[in-house]
Amino acid sequence: MINETVLLESRSLRGSVLDRTDVLDRVKALSLLPDGMHVTTAMVAAYFEVGIEAIKSVVKDHRAELEASGYRLLTGTELRFFKDLSGIQSRTRSLALFPRRAVLNIAMLLRDSKVARQVRVYLLDMEYLARTQPVENPVLSPQTSLSTQSPLSTPPAAPPGLDEHIDGRIAHILGKTVVPMFNALIASCGEHRQELITLRQDIENVERRLCRHHRRIRALETDAPAARVGASLRNMTWQALVHHVADLLRRDGCTDVTVRTARTGRGVDITARTADGRTMAVRCKNRAGRSTVPSADLRKFAGATRVVGRVDVALFVATCAFSGEAQAVADLTGVITVDRDEWEAWAAGVRLKALQ
Question: Domain 236-355, CATH 3.30.1490.190 — does that match?
Answer without folding.
Answer: no
